[in-house]
């Protein structure tokens, strides 16, 4: 099947194109006050987290169709997360509940110096124990886009489940979308992280990375150097490589063109989930038209939309609660262009 004439699943029946997200969903504990270290925090508030799950909710809140596949504990937190997906109209039929392992927890804060600090509790957590025999194969096969990160590559048996799911999606004609979402604290070493992230690099059709991840993956090269990005990170099968630049916007690279799209200026309260909102906004657009990466004007519009999704997310605390609706994004874009 031609990549660009591939499925917009169910279009003939009027169904929306489906984005299926695979990986971790967990509980983030964030300080009740801002700009403190974890040790200084007087208290914590629980919030749903996990990059792939955030992306799935973002797609749904934007009016798209999404599903999440992953594993949580057969505990109160696991049930809570499953219900949150359901409340946001994300298909959670691919979720599994482990009776012997707890739902993953992460304590996260943005310190006064701007550095994000993480502390994870997963030894092992349920998301690490997803098995390929537990995959919802039929759901994966329906995906117009199959999206994932790299955290699910760190440990077995989840790594094998991840690779199996990618294979099923690719064979069924799905576009593969990859956001490494580097969390060094979870990997055995920097070398293991670099090797693990790059091990599936050349299979993706769409990749989103941050500037810091460019520097890390290239062994210290300048993240602003287009030649470095194209020579070391762009591969022949890649349809689109996007570099997120935070409040500045993003850069994009395809086989035919490259450029930069600036972001809307907003008052930042909490950057948690902004990158996931960006990815959700972009995948929402690509799922509706998989040929969008062939037209630079249309791609730039999709990236403006994705930038606005990220910008709106930083104006509120938390990830999922701050993810925007399509109407809010369109209003921001209208205000900016007025």
TrEMBL record:
Q: Does the keyword Membrane apply?
A: no
Keyword annotations for this protein? ATP-binding, Carbohydrate metabolism, Kinase, Nucleotide-binding, Transferase
- What Pfam family is a match for this entry? PfkB
Q: What is its EC number?
A: 2.7.1.4
Question: What are the annotated GO cellular component locations?
Answer: cytosol
Write down the top EC class of this protein: transferase
What role is this protein assigned?
May play an important role in maintaining the flux of carbon towards starch formation.
| Protein's name in the database | fructokinase
Organism per entry: Lithospermum erythrorhizon (Purple gromwell)
